Amino acid sequence: MHASMQTTNDNMTTTLCEKFASRSATVPAAAAKTNKLPLWLKLAFTGFMAVLVPIYWHHYGPTNFLYFCDVALFLTLAAVWTEIVFSPAWPPLAFLFHKSLVR
To answer: In terms of domains, do 4 and 41 share one?
Structure first.
């Protein structure tokens, strides 16, 4: 009787694992289709950065890009193009966290 219980548990585990695997394989693909950013938004933000960087470089020098707000802009640009779901939230949050500590 113990062997039949083990077989039943193995079947249940296999079934649960198969269900989980099938869900995890389909959910990101569906989410990627719905979270896709439009090309015009990517190009607009890239154009904004293409104008901002030379102007800042000319007026403030290259050391200005070491500030967290500027690092956040570059990380946001990378997040816009890579479309990783959680990455756009991290640069502004890190900037706000730093600003809340340093007053």
So the answer is: no
